[in-house]
Amino acid sequence: MPPPSPPLNMIVAVTDTGGIGMRGAIPWRLKRDVLYFRLVTTHFSEKSGVVREEAAEGAKAKWQGAGAGEGEGEGKEKGDGGGGRTVTNAVIMGRKTWESIPPKWRPLGDRINVVVTSRWESLQHEHAATTTTPSTLLFKPSLTSAMDHLAAVPRVDAVFVIGGAQVYAEALAHPACKRVFLTRVWRTGTGSVPGAVDEKDGRSTEGGLTPETRERASWDCDAFFPTLGSEWKDVPGAVEKVTRGRYSGAEGEEGGVGYKFAVLERV
Ligand SMILES: NC(=O)c1ccc[n+]([C@@H]2O[C@H](COP(=O)([O-])OP(=O)(O)OC[C@H]3O[C@@H](n4cnc5c(N)ncnc54)[C@H](OP(=O)(O)O)[C@@H]3O)[C@@H](O)[C@H]2O)c1
């Protein structure tokens, strides 16, 4: 009997119109979302439902420094691929999302990285030829095979699908998919966002900051997050709980980008 599938979490930043990317990249820049992404995907414990304690303290310091140049990129925290800890998290992504990560930041540090691609054999072979140490980077032919592999690794704790559109759609259809860490983003018009396109969405006020920012604008996107059905519900207070209350500001504004973190669960 194969081990049961691990629960699947998704993490995504999405506009009000469901946009997540444009021409292979993310059209906005949001350091605090990068820090949140790193904290949650590296340190969230599926067993406790919160980030591991020592991580929350470090995250608080980084969060406070975010405005002063911290968090430019995803980065590698310790560079040990999680090997120094007894448990590690894993991230699963599509080949295009993998290619969108700057080489200096990949594989994402302190997590097992699994890339889904039809060219998995040749990419795995190429990778094996360039590394002599046990690697935390794997190429797999499907989401299911990625999950089967991770289910058989005892030290894997939480598993995250980190994009893009194609893999999110597959994950959402999977019965193991139970939680979405969602960052809602919108343009506030208070900063300059290169390449951004005004596109008023006409939606209502949820998550806005001031009356002025409630009339949200978005970015031009060609990749979209699938629509979540009514069985997906916002969990009140979940962001504070998950981060052990160490993150000040589950919503805010940074460089012309408004954001609000949420955790949704399938009920
Ligand atoms: N806003 C966010 O939070 C966020 C997060 C991540 C990504 N993004 C954005 O999303 C966009 C990329 O999304 P995307 O949908 O174009 O690409 P993607 O999902 O990242 O990658 C698609 C590729 O993954 C492989 N793949 C997916 N499902 C597979 C399966 N069942 N079996 C085998 N291979 C499979 C295929 O690779 P092969 O062609 O090699 O077979 C496919 O071409 C980019 O703009 C990126 O910046 C945004």
Automatic annotation (TrEMBL):
GO MF: dihydrofolate reductase activity; NADP binding
Entry EC no(s): 1.5.1.3
PROSITE patterns: DHFR_1, DHFR_2
Region Disordered, annotated ranges: 60-86, 192-213
Any one GO BP annotation for this protein: dihydrofolate metabolic process
Keywords: NADP, One-carbon metabolism, Oxidoreductase
Family: Belongs to the dihydrofolate reductase family.
PANTHER family with a match to the protein in the record: DIHYDROFOLATE REDUCTASE
The name this protein goes by in its record: Dihydrofolate reductase
Organism in which the protein naturally occurs: Gonapodya prolifera (strain JEL478) (Monoblepharis prolifera)
